[in-house]
From TrEMBL:
<dbReference type="InterPro" id="IPR036906">
    <property type="entry name" value="ATPase_V1_fsu_sf"/>
</dbReference>
<keyword id="KW-0406">Ion transport</keyword>
<keyword id="KW-0813">Transport</keyword>
<comment type="subunit">
    <text>V-ATPase is a heteromultimeric enzyme composed of a peripheral catalytic V1 complex (components A to H) attached to an integral membrane V0 proton pore complex (components: a, c, c', c'', d, e, f and VOA1).</text>
</comment>
<comment type="similarity">
    <text>Belongs to the V-ATPase F subunit family.</text>
</comment>
<protein>
    <recommendedName>
        <fullName>V-type proton ATPase subunit F</fullName>
    </recommendedName>
</protein>
<dbReference type="InterPro" id="IPR005772">
    <property type="entry name" value="ATPase_V1-cplx_fsu_euk"/>
</dbReference>
<keyword id="KW-0375">Hydrogen ion transport</keyword>
<comment type="subunit">
    <text>V-ATPase is a heteromultimeric enzyme made up of two complexes: the ATP-hydrolytic V1 complex and the proton translocation V0 complex.</text>
</comment>
<comment type="function">
    <text>Subunit of the V1 complex of vacuolar(H+)-ATPase (V-ATPase), a multisubunit enzyme composed of a peripheral complex (V1) that hydrolyzes ATP and a membrane integral complex (V0) that translocates protons. V-ATPase is responsible for acidifying and maintaining the pH of intracellular compartments.</text>
</comment>
<dbReference type="Pfam" id="PF01990">
    <property type="entry name" value="ATP-synt_F"/>
</dbReference>
<dbReference type="InterPro" id="IPR008218">
    <property type="entry name" value="ATPase_V1-cplx_f_g_su"/>
</dbReference>
Amino acid sequence: MAQTAANRSFIAVIGDEDTVTGLLLAGTGHLTEDKKKNFLVVDNKSSVDDIEAAFDDFTATRKDIAVLLINQHIAEKIRYKLDAYTNAFPAVLEIPSKDHPYDPEKDSVLRRVRRLFGE
């Protein structure tokens, strides 16, 4: 079945408190009728299982998410899931955080693009 973006209108976020707060202040927050949030704040008490569950929820279960933003240092904790993810929707983008700069060498999407172009 072909994927479509027709009903996908929200951005989901998995990030540290500063990143999620900034994006919520920018208006990305959403609560479904059954009280499901489109964001996960990850701190030092968050388990890898919690991060994986949110990633699976945002990418497989929820059909209203168009883009998933994830802090790159958090993506490293579930790198195998990001490397295995190949769907067009939602698009998964790794972003920097205040305390962790972006490293293009770790980004799954950029590595895939480099392989396509034989680099």
